[in-house]
Amino acid sequence: MAKTARTGREKIVGASGAADAETGSPAESGPETASDVTPGTALRSPAIVPTGTAEDGRLGNALRPRRFDEYVGQTAVVDSITVAVMAASQRGEALDHVLLHGPPGLGKTTIAHIIAREMESRLVHTSGPAMERPADVVGILSNLGERDVLFIDEIHRLSSAVEEYLYSAMEDFRVDFTTGQGAFAKTINLPLHPFTLIGSTTRVGMLSAPLRDRFGLVYHLDYYTEEQLTLVVQRSAKILDVQISDSGASEIARRSRGTPRIANRLLRRVRDFAQVRHDGVIDAEIGKNALLLEGVDHLGLDRLDRLYLETLARNYDGGPAGVNALAATLNEEQQTLEDVVEPYLLKIGFILRTTQGRRTTPEGAKHAGVVQALGTTLKSDPQQTRFL
Ligand code: ADP
Q1: Ligand 1 binding pocket mutation candidate from 58, 106, 114, 153 (most atoms within 8 A of CB)
Q2: Tens digit of each residue's pLDDT (9 = 90 or more) over 142-163
């Protein structure tokens, strides 16, 4: 019956969706259940999180592509998912579980939304850290309807206790959990409706092998090219009703670190600048000046990127330095450095991740304004440079 609420567009269940389930009848909100479980009761969880991050905000959601034909780039991934979605739909089955990995802001959440929409399914959005207790995961799973999509962001941050519950849920659509303690302990087997789990992570290496192996469809999202980001900027400008020249769009694209979320954020900053200092129309010159004002250089590196490079090149003589030491020196979260700063610096060849720690390349040191003699040592000793 939950399906009667479907409109052909995915229905996103966030915090308010949990409340919907609360008022729904058992048949609406829960799967068939073991006889000693009252459907839809006591299994509800606070772990369902609202969709959309603060970073994306109101405009971010407006800019999120709703169908694959609006989704720029990642062609191989999109083609493969499209075939899998069509095949599952034709068979009337739930799509196989999907794992999406890659740096933040590349469109993983967007793909999850599009899949749910194409499957005409409900999307339940949660995250690894939000599912703290086994009761959270049991609550969410037991409220999933047939072919619903459960999206778990930052899936690498699930606790192992919670992860264990997912194994049988993913494989056999069933969870076993224990209530009571000691002599009163009772194991309850709860059958679930077939559903699709979509996991998203920036750190696929941190996923345990048993969890990773349970995903039938695994995709890596890579950084976008300048041409693709130009299309993203042009599309977003249209939605925001901003006039932008082709050269203005590519100027923003060039400085977006290969990332659509950054492209959209920079477009909003340039839009403000063009509106306040000019006549609102964005060209290359306005784009360049607006982004310089934001501290974004011609390669798209911001203050933190440059500070990271400079610290590694100057304070640590080009490295090797541990990321925890760098985080302490920069007074930044280690995770921010690992997830946000380093992947792009690695991609453009400004740093290396070696077994001994991080090193700058001569190009990276030069960009930070530091001349580095170490580059020759590195090149002459390739054993030292094992990429992780
Ligand atoms: P992730 O989940 O990988 O961190 P999101 O899916 O939240 O990234 O994407 C961030 C924003 O970037 C989206 O709101 C959307 O506006 C934009 N975006 C991401 N991928 C694309 C794409 N392929 N085409 C157009 N816009 C995109």
Answers
A1: 106
A2: 999 999 999 999 999 998 888 9
